[in-house]
Amino acid sequence: MNWLVFSYSLPSKLNSKHRVSLWRRLHRFGAISPKTGVYVLPDREECAEAFQWLAQEVQEAKGEALVMKVEKFEGLQDSELVELFKKSCKKDYEELGQEIEILEKTLKKKSTNKTPHLRESIKRLRNQLSEIAAIDFFTSDIGRLIQNRLKALDEKLIPSTPRVIPKLSRSDYLNKTWVTRPRPHIDRLGCVWLIRKFIDPNARIRYSQTPGKDEIPFDMKDAVLGHHQNLCSFETMIIAFNLKEEALKPIASIVHEIDLRDGQNVRPETEGVASILKGWLFQGLSDADLESRGLTLFEGLYSAFKKLS
Fold first, then answer.
1. pLDDT score of 113
2. Cα gap 102→117, rounded to integer Å
3. Residues 6 or more apart in contact with residue 184 via CB below 8 angstroms
4. Measuring CA to CA, which residue among 207, 204, 196, 144 is closest to residue 170?
5. Residue 164: what are its φ and ψ, rounded to 5°?
6. 26, 58, 71, 267: most buried by Cβ count inside 10 Å?
7. Opening angle at CA 25, ends 12 and 134, nearest 5
8. Phi-psi label, residue 304: left if phi above 0, alpha if psi -120 to 50, beta otherwise
9. Other CB atoms closer than 10 Å to residue 238's CB: what's the count?
10. Do 6 and 37 form a contact (C-beta atoms < 8 A)?
C-alpha cells in the first residue's frame, strides 16, 4: 500500500494562531501523525491535493514543506497505520454518538412537541457524519453503527411504509425509448448507465419533461421507475430489475447520498463524485455530453468496486 507523507517547519517568529490553524486543517483532512513532525494520508488524489495546498501555504509563510509518496514505513506495518486512521476517527464518532444518545432519549418521551427541532438536529448530525465519513478512509465499524443509529432516529420521526416496487422483466424493456428530465444529474445519469449496462445496451434515451406514447419514463414525477419513499430512482431500478451485482451496492450508496443528502449512505468517495458533477454543471455541458461522461464515470466506479467485491 502506498502512503503520502507531509512534513513541514514554520519560522519561529510566526504567531501561534497560524500554527494552530495548520494543525486543525491537518486534522480536518484526516491526517495521522505516527512519528513526531510527520503526517500521513493514504495515497489518493484528493489527499495529495490537500497536502500540496498545505505545502504551498507553508512556503508562502517562508517555511519549509515536503510531500512524499512512500510504500512502507520502517517498523510500522500497513495494518497498524490503518488502525491508527480508524482510531483517529473513533473519537469524532463517539462525540457524535453522545449527541445522538441525547436525541434518542428525547424521542423516548411520550409527549414532545419538538419534532421540527429534532429534524433540524438530525440534519445537523447527518452533516457532521458526512464530514467524518469523508476522512474515514478505511470505513470503521463504529461509523456504520453511528449511521444506523441516525437512520433509526429518522424512521422514528417519519415512520416508513412498506415499499411496493414492481418486479420487471428485462425482456419486456428491450428496444424501447426511455425518457427522463433534461440536464441529467447523479440519479438520472446512474439510471442511464444501468439501462445501457444491464437492461438494453441499444436503448434510446431521450431528455424531455413530457414522455411520449410507449416511452419508458424514469426519475420523473409519477414514474414507476422513480423515487419510492427514501429510495432514489437508481435504487428503485436495481430492485425492480432484480440486479444482484455486489459492485452496485456502493455505487447506489453514492448516488443516494448525492441525490438525497440524508446521511443514510455515507461513503468516502461521495464528495469526490459530487465535485466532478458540480464541475460539469459549471461547464454548461449538453445533455448528450453529460450522458457520455456519466457513462464513463459510472463504468469506472463499477470496475473499481467490482475488483474489490
1. 54
2. 13
3. 192, 207, 287, 290, 291, 294
4. 196
5. -115, 95
6. 58
7. 160
8. alpha
9. 24
10. no
- Report the candidate in 147, 146, 2 with the shortest Cα–Cα distance to residue 73: 2
Q: Each residue of 147-186: pLDDT tens digit?
A: 888 878 877 776 544 457 899 999 999 999 999 999 999 9
- With a cut of 90, say whether residue 104 has pLDDT above it: no
What does the CA dihedral 46, 268, 84, 24 come to, rounded to 10 degrees? 60
Q: Which grid coordinates belong to 13?
A: 517568529
Of 297 and 154, more confident: 297
Q: Tell me if 81 sits within 8 A of 32, measured CB to CB.
A: yes
Do β-strands 64-70 and 3-9 pair in parallel, antiparallel, or remain unpaired?
antiparallel
204 phi, psi to nearest 5 deg: -95, 130
What span, in angstroms and rounded, lies between the C-alpha atoms of 124 and 20?
A: 25
pLDDT in tens, 105-143: 887 775 555 566 777 888 888 888 888 888 888 888 888
Strands ordered across the beta sheet of 204-207: 204-207, 177-180, 216-217
pLDDT, tens only, 13-22? 877 887 888 8
Nearest to 81 by CA among 41, 26, 129: 41
C-alpha cell at 217: 419514463
Count of alpha carbons within 13 angstroms of residue 287, beta-carbon side: 12
